[in-house]
User: What shape does this take?
Amino acid sequence: MKIIVDAMGGDHAPEAPVAASVKAADELNVDIVLVGKTDAIEKELSRRPYNKDRISIAPADDVISNHEEPAKAVRSKKNASVVVAANMLKNGEGDAMLSMGNTGALLASGLLIVGRIKGVLRPALATLLPSAKGPKMLIDAGANTNCKVENLVQFAVMGSIYMKNVLSTKNPTVGLISNGEEEGKGDELTKAAYPKLKDAPINFIGNIEGRDVMEGTADVMTCDGFVGNVILKTVEGMGHVVSDKVKGIFTKGLFTKLGALFVMKGLNDFKQTMDYREYGGAPLLGTKKPVIKGHGSSDAKAVFSAIVQAKKFVETNVIDDIEKNINGMEEEING
Amino acid sequence: MKIIVDAMGGDHAPEAPVAASVKAADELNVDIVLVGKTDAIEKELSRRPYNKDRISIAPADDVISNHEEPAKAVRSKKNASVVVAANMLKNGEGDAMLSMGNTGALLASGLLIVGRIKGVLRPALATLLPSAKGPKMLIDAGANTNCKVENLVQFAVMGSIYMKNVLSTKNPTVGLISNGEEEGKGDELTKAAYPKLKDAPINFIGNIEGRDVMEGTADVMTCDGFVGNVILKTVEGMGHVVSDKVKGIFTKGLFTKLGALFVMKGLNDFKQTMDYREYGGAPLLGTKKPVIKGHGSSDAKAVFSAIVQAKKFVETNVIDDIEKNINGMEEEING
Assistant: This one.
C-alpha cells in the first residue's frame, strides 16, 4: 500500500509530515510518497535514518497557502503539492492521500480532481471529536453549506460505514443535530430530514442537542456543514481556553506548582482524552479514493495517527461499502 | 420597582425562587411578587424571616411542565404561574418578570401575552456566556429558527443596547457567527446578512467563528436561534464533561487529593469564571416589558443574580432604547 503525503501543508511542514512518514514506513508496512519541494523534503529526510525502499519524493514546487481562495487556487496552481498529490491519487499512483494544508484546497482537490463516488451528491468532511464515551464522528464538519435533506441522509450513511469499518463500532448510532430532542424540534432542514433518516439503512436514534456532542450520545452526528463547522470550532476554542485556564492555575505559585506534581498523571490522562492528535485526521467521505485532512497544527505524532487512519481507511474498503450502500438506497427509492 | 417572580418554575422551585426573592427584597430595594401555589410559597416563606412589606403572593394553581407543548399550554392553561405572571406584567402590576420554568412557555408568554415592541419582527433569547474576556452575549440563543436577514440585524441592535446599558460595555462589538472569518464565508443567510450588519447602527466587526465564542472576540454574537441553541448547549455540555473529568482527577487517590488542596483556590476561581450562576438569566429582547429566563437548574444564588439583572434591565431603559433604535432604523430605510 502506498500513502501520498502532502509534505508542504500545515503549521509544522515539512518537518512533521516527513518525520511521521519515516516512522510510518518503519512501523506500518506502508510505502510513502512525499509530495512537495524536493530540497526541503530531502533536507528533512537527511536529518534521520529512513527506509529508502519505502519512501520516495514527488516534486511539486508550489504551495497553496491558508489565505488563498481554494477552488481558484486548485484550478490555477497545477504544480501545488495538494494538486499534484490529488492527481497522483486519481491516476492510481497511491492508495490514499493526506494533507495538513488549506482545508478548502484539499476539499476542492478531492471534489474536482479525485471526483465523487457515483450516487454521492456531496462529499463531506468527517471529524472525530473527543467525548466522554470516546471519539465520535461529526459529519459534515465544514465542507458543505446550505445542505438539502438528501445530503444529511448520505452523510449519516457514509459516517456509519466509516465508524463501523475503521473504528470497529458495532451498529453505530446516528443522531441528527437539532435544537431539541423531540421529533418536532428543528429548523426546516432538520424537520424534513428526520423522517428520511428514520427510513435510511442506519441505526437512527433521533434528534440530539449540543450537549450530546461531548457526552458522546451518538456515534455519528449528522448536520449541515455550517452548523458542523461552528460546533467543531466551538469545541476547539473551548479546549484552548480551558487548557490555558487550567495551566494558569498550576503555574501561579509554589504551592500550586507542588499541587501540579501530585495531579500530573491525572491531568495528562485528561489531556490525552481531549487531544485531537490521538484521533488522526478528518476523512473526506464520498470521494472515489481515500482523502484525509490532517489538522493544520499537527505535530509528527498527529500526522502519524492520520497515516494509521489512512491505512485503515484503505484496508477496510470504506469506499466500496459507501458505493454499494448509496446505490442500494437509490435502487430502493427508485423501485 | 416590582419584580414578578414565577415561584413554580425550575428544578429547585419553589425553594430557590423564594429564598432568592427574600434576599432581593432585603438587599436590592425592590418589591417582589411571587406567583404560584399559595400553600407551597407560604411554606417556603415561613422557613425564614422576610420583609412582609416588600414580598407578596399572586396565586396561580397550575404549572406548565418541561414536557408540555409550550404555545398550546400557554393558550390553554390560563392559571399557570408563567401565564399569570405574564398577564400581570402586561397589566402593569410589575416592572419585569422572571421564570426558571419551561423556556418555550416563557417565550410564548412573552410573545403572545406581553407582546412585541413596535417594529421588532421577532423577540430573541439573549444568553450571556463566559469567555476568556468576561461574559459575552449570544443572540438568538434558541427562540427563533429559520431566521431572515432582518432578524439577525435586529438581534444585533437589541443585543448591543443590552450590553451597553446593563453590562456597561462601551461601544459593544458585534460578530456574525459563521464558518469562516472572511466576508465571503457563510451560508445563504449569513452571506446576505453581512452587508446589512455593516450598514446597521452597531459596531460590526465581521464574521466570527466557533473558536471566538469562548475567546470572547465579540461582545455580541448574532446568529439564527438554531445555531445559537446548538452553540449554547455544546458549551454547557462541554462544561459538564470537563468538570467531571477534572473532579475525577482530584478524587482518585491520596496523592491527588493532597494535590487538590494545593490548587483549590485556583480551581474555584476557574469554576467561578465558567459558572452561569454569576451571570444571571437570559433576557428575552424585543418584548414590550422586561422578560428574563433563568436557567432551569438555578439555585437561590443564580435566581438572585437574575433578579439583580431584571432590576438593571428596568433601570437602564433597555426597552425604550430598543424601540427608538429599531424605529430609527425603519425611518432611515423607508426614507
Summary: Chain B has two domains: 1-120+286-320, 122-281. The CA atoms of residues 107 and 311 of chain B lie 20 Å apart.
